[in-house]
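DM from R.C. (forwarded with permission)

"hey, sorry to bug you on a friday — could you get me a structure for this? deadline for the figure draft is monday and I only need the backbone to look sensible"
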Amino acid sequence: MRTLAIALIGGAALLGLTAPADAAEDGSDTAPAVAPVDVLQVSGLFDDIVVNAVSEQLDRAATDGAQALILQVNSRGAVVSDEVMADLLGQVAAAEVPVAVWVGPSGARLYGTPAQLLAVADVTGMAPGSRVGYTGQPLDVPGVEIDFGAAAPFITTDSVGLSDARDLGVFRQRISDEGIATIVNMVDALDGYEEGGVVLDTTTETVTDSGTVQRDTIAVVRFFKLPLLEQLFHTVWSPAVTYLLLLAGLALLVFEFFTAGVGVAGVVGAGSLILATTGLAALPTRPWAAALVVLAMLAFAIDVQVGVPRLWTGVGVVLTIVGSMFLFEPLPGSSLRPSWITLVAGIGGIMLTFIVGMPSMVRTRFATPTIGRDWMIGELGSVVERVDPDGLVEVRGATWRARTNRATPVDAGEQIKVVAIDGVTLEVEPLEGAAKDYRELRQRS
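My reply, with the result:
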């Protein structure tokens, strides 16, 4: 009896352990897991970093079990070649998972050759207040036809908003009159899309207690962004940041040139200039405009050494303004010229630096005892610009700001003698005909 009881208990336990497993196998009690939906957020110009990120995300979505990939885009054009963009379009068209393109959030733009993604993606949509267009001529993509149909004449050289884009048939899937306001709505738009016999399952309908039917997202949404280092360079390669880094780097190097040793300003200036150079190489830059900005700094430097803004400072301001306005070439439908706020900050900052700040800082640096220019006292020189009471003199081949230490003016070409130094200004007197100081005469008598 004891043996029979043990056998019965063991059998019951065994049935209890195996029953859930059998139920799971036939799927009667446990629903299969829903594959996730990946979202890659792309903002800014399509450069090499963005193109590589999209390409890598296409591979990641296919290998990580995603049922679809959504590209959330807000871009005013591409700075890569048409060949690179055509290759990317081909990758999107041949992707192993369905690819959706959402122009959002509200106010986003999709201009230039990146807008041709709308012709190769499986599902497309845009948020209210967004615009698409300036696609240009269709790129040559092997095995893929870029065709916008009736919308082509309207978006090739112009842009359209949500209503016009929907009416012209720009979107691959029909969207509501309100558009696709959020990424959740875009995930919902994917539900039911079929490709290769596979139907996307992203949302489900539920009925609330009040009888209202609502759609709930059942797919896990995984968001992806550019890695930190790539995000840094992608930000640097924007026109506004590249422009400000260029001005800041050049200005700091000019300041460091007139100081003793290499300090923080020199290191920061060199780093800023290196980053700005990478941005100039990535963006469609006008070389002659960049050269004008460099020449402007050289013009500023001429007046910095005398400690007083003069003609060359004005030349530098003009060159900076012209170079800033024409530094970048425009893209279809979008001017890469920095915003007016950026231009005012850049040009205004340079003017304050070289008209007010730089001369004061340089005079302060040169006035420190560590510079050691006492050897100039007693040196002879010639007048470059009449000293009455201020002017310019040349001592040992260098031009200096000068002031007569007495009431006697000195004309250009006459000889002078350095009698004292005040910061970067030399106190001089003529070799002949100087006014007599009667206080000295009384002391001698």
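R.C.: lifesaver. The first strand starts at residue 37 and ends at 43.
me: no worries. The chain has 14 helices and 17 strands.
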